[in-house]
């Protein structure tokens, strides 16, 4: 991710909207707390304003805040600078349309085509925009929440979906990320007694041994401090996990189940990684779980296709499409706590009741040319077939090529931990054996 790419993306985005009839498109820009955030955000803003766009600068804000505000403020698009749960040296650019949703494939393809043209020729045949036609960037908003801040509509939206916590003791881990300012104010506003952790971003410490990718430290603090619940976000706060008072992880699977039953949903959407225990538990309650590929885009598309409202991933990226167009960690935590309160049961009782089957994931290096063809390798097929026969209806086997790395992820799940571990290793060994000749030959 470079300044040059961010600049071209800004140019291409504004020009694509101009061609669609938006003469001076209005674009919101937010970022998380990474060191490279201002650099990339201002480069993208330069590209946008060079093609006549008006840019509203939101500063540090959760990704779902950009999504929500794009729609709430009537903007034409929103841009978030973040690499979510990844290390600080990574970064990314995420675009939302006027509805606060991810761009359609058609619009995305148009922007990508123009980015490629700009990379080959910085002018790409575009007529220059000069003088009063050049766009403007509105300055950073320093108003406090509730005092006229541009973030106020988003803050009110969260409050409207929040339970009153009436003195509940909450340990809050903000991952030194985008939620570090807004989340503590939110939970204090709804009556929680809050201890705040990891709210001192320095540009480099986002997600480092904290947040939803490292929940163990929060779990220890919840138990040691006698808290009622822990809540932890990732770097851009589009996902959340909870910790119950016993220090147990409340995953996205748990949250989907609790929320679905509280809301009276009869169908939900989850991914191929969602625990079989959750699926069986929901089935016993009359709720059907539909599985899709890993990725919130696929969850969103299936929810829309089936006209459903609740779905998500183990990671805590949960969608409530009647409340927001994208996953929102703070909203997820609030909906989960509200559902628990509505049920009249404790979070601990819920976690006792929802089974979690042992699930083992083994990453195996595999050349890109083989990743998508493992099902054709006889020894791998035999190992999978044997595993499925041993596990029976009480387990699952999944081979999933990584979308970003030369890896195949071998996932085995079942009721017996020893059987799961042995089975996963045998399949992984078969995959390694199939890949070895190509890896040794540099293929």
In short:
This protein has 443 residues and is an alpha/beta fold. It has helices spanning 3-19, 37-50, 63-72, 105-120, 152-160, 182-189, 216-225, 252-263, 276-284, 296-306, 329-343, 347-353, 368-371, 378-391, 417-440, and strands spanning 26-31, 54-60, 77-81, 93-96, 137-138, 169-173, 193-197, 229-233, 240-244, 249-250, 267-271, 288-292, 310-312, 318-320, 359-365, 395-401, 407-414.
| CATH topology descriptor of the largest domain | Alpha-D-Glucose-1,6-Bisphosphate, Chain A, domain 3
Query: Which CATH architecture of the largest domain would you pick?
Result: 3-Layer(aba) Sandwich
Q: What assembly state would you assign to the polypeptide chains in this entry? A: single chain
Strand order of the largest sheet: 4-3-1-2-5
CATH superfamily of the largest domain: Alpha-D-Glucose-1,6-Bisphosphate, subunit A, domain 3
Average pLDDT score: 94
**Structural domains: how many:** 3
Biggest sheet architecture: 5 strands, mixed
Write the layout of secondary structure elements.
Blueprint: H1 3-19, E1 26-31, H2 37-50, E2 54-60, H3 63-72, E3 77-81, E4 93-96, H4 105-120, E5 137-138, H5 152-160, E6 169-173, H6 182-189, E7 193-197, H7 216-225, E8 229-233, E9 240-244, E10 249-250, H8 252-263, E11 267-271, H9 276-284, E12 288-292, H10 296-306, E13 310-312, E14 318-320, H11 329-343, H12 347-353, E15 359-365, H13 368-371, H14 378-391, E16 395-401, E17 407-414, H15 417-440
Parallel strand pairs: 1-2, 1-3, 2-5, 6-7, 6-8, 11-12
Antiparallel strand pairs: 3-4, 8-9, 9-10, 13-14, 15-17, 16-17
